[in-house]
Amino acid sequence: MGYYILIGLIGLVSMLVSSKLKSKFKHYSKVHLQNGMSGAEIARKMLHDHGITDVEVISTPGMLTDHYNPAKKTVNLSEGVYSQRNAAAAAVAAHECGHAVQHAKGYEWLQMRSKLVPVVSVASNMSVWVIFGGIVLGASTQFGFTVAVIGLIMFAMGTLFSFVTLPVEYDASNRALAWLKNRNIVTPEEYNGAKDSLKWAARTYVVAAVGSLATLLYFALKVFGGRD
Q1: Who contacts 12 (Cβ-Cβ below 8 Å, separation ≥6)?
Q2: What is the value of pTM for the model shown?
């Protein structure tokens, strides 16, 4: 029961932050850029200004599906960001290019996260089942305890990934905002909108990381408590 309460609370906070993020982007989508540039144009200019010529800016379906793909070297902008000419679009486009700049400069936290991706993609899907399997087998027995601990280690990899993601996301936003301001891409009002948008986007990652850590600690208490 405690696990479901914890998951429920984490889910509620995540939902509230996500809802706030969507409302912020909706609000700043109405703050149209005086320079008339689209998200795609802003992305291409930021890449150009940083001397990056081997990254392509493309449109991807969905809302808030924007991301940078280091393997394919593409800045993927959602349809609403790619063609729109507002403060929210400018923030997202510049942020994703911030990741491209990190990649080009060999930013250590991005490199670490990239190395964790193949491990986490496998471990995160199986970890909870392995933990519960160990508990069902009996965490008080050596075999059950060993299985549960393996599950904890797998889950911990996902938690580590969540925390490594934080400096990557905050740094990308800082690079984006610095470029928008220093290159006079946006007016002060537009800059404040972009900054506020990215602030709420970053909070979704903070909630995810804290939620993952809280769940890991709960599972650890269940597993090691079963040894008493």
Answers
A1: none
A2: 0.89
